[in-house]
Each structure stands twice: as C-alpha cells, then as structure tokens.
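Chain X:
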Amino acid sequence: MDIATRIADTDDRAPAWALYQSALKPHIESIWGWDQAWQIAYFEKAFSTSATYVLEAGSEFAGYIQLDINSRDIYLGMLVLAPNVRSRGIGAKLLAEINRLAHQAGRTMHLRVFRVNGAAKRFYEREGWQVKAEEDAFFLMTHPLNETDQPAKPLHDLRVG
C-alpha cells in the first residue's frame, strides 16, 4: 500500500480529530479522564502550531503526523494511523524516514508515549527507540541515530512517502 504525505489544511481537521479521539481517548480516559473541552483546545492548538502532515492511501485519509521543530530538536507529537492501514509496516517506514531526515539535518528527535500504551512502546522499541526518561504518564524516547552534537542544518520540509 502506497502512502503519500502532504501538509494538512483546514479540511483535514475533522478527520484528524476523529482519529485523535478513537486512538487516544481510551488511554487519556484511563490516566486523567476525558475532558472534551480541554481535548478540543489541545488538539486545535497542536493542529495550528505544529507541522501537521496528512497521510493518504490513494485519496483516502489514512492518518497524520505532527512535528514540533526547533533549532536543535524535533519532537514527534503524533504519528496516528487509521485502523485500516495499521500493522502493514507503514508506521515503521514513515518513522524511519522522519528519523533519517532528522539525522541528516543534525537534529535530535524525541517522542513521548503513554505508559499505558504498551503496544506503542513496543513498536517504537522494535524500531530502535530507547527510553531516556520517565514522566508520570509517559516514557520519553529517542533514537540513537539522532543523538548528535553536530550543528543543526536548515530543515526545509519533512514530507515523506
């Protein structure tokens, strides 16, 4: 299955929100409880301020990625796939490509995974990510490829696919 990426636009908010809820609500409910108004505000802020990329399988919405990029680091805020494209190696391919681009740009890449989401943690560990710190509800992870002291290079676009 071929997956293409593109920069998200306002028409992508509704499918991304639906996917956010279906993928994350069970974890969030088990940790803090689900506060609908807070979650909408959090989602809207991230959608507006992060580099948000839509994943498409053909012309179908297949997920989204959110990255927070600064002068030294890249934080992978979201990598969420639609249920019909999960477990096909797509997430691993996308993650490897983002990791490669981050490495080329001399950026350290991080992500956080819910402690209660053992499947996601196992996925990242299979892809070579390591837990670097523990927070109340999260594991902070990084990949050894991106632990660098090299000066960061300009980063123009992280579209993958």
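Chain Y:
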Amino acid sequence: MMAPTAKNKQPIKIFAIKSSEGLEKVDSISACRYNAPLVFLVCYDLDNCWYNEDNTVNSGIEDASICTTHMMLEAYNIGLGSCWINLMDYSKCREVFNLDENIVPLCLLDVG
C-alpha cells in the first residue's frame, strides 16, 4: 500500500500462496518456483485502474510493477531472496486461481 499508484487508485491485488495445494497450482503454470515456500501472485484490477482521457491506456502494469519492485526491495531488507517470474502460462493462471475477468495477472514473485 506504500507503493505509488496513478491517482492513488490502488488497483493492485496480491495473492499470497503458501499452502501445498496453492504451490502445486503455481508449479502447474510455471517451472520457475525454485522450491520457494512462498509465492505472491501480483495482479491488477482493470475496474480500479486510472485510464487516460481517451480510455485507451490504463495504469495497471505500471502500478503493479512498482508495487512488485517495492516487495522485492523489502524482501531483501529482511534477508530474503525473491525472483520476479513472468515465464508462466497466463491463461492457465487465470483458470487455476479462478481470477475474475477484470483481474489481470502481472507476475509471480518467489520469496524465500
């Protein structure tokens, strides 16, 4: 919530995944978990993004990217490693995590 977002709309949605079942779902969409015990699925909500005047560009990617960068910096500050992962099956991600149409996955963030 400390990361800046366009017009302070805060469209970011973060899912913390640490259960065995959840981590198996992560493994089904990406080979890049590297046995991390915690994975964040960072998304943004199209219904809460700021849009430009002609409604063709939204702030979701930038807002969620800034937030993810802050998360990586904080993980480092507390002695943890992290890895930004965008090598995943985005369609399958939507399916296995049952994301609404307006929720757009940006990346997985392994932490450990």
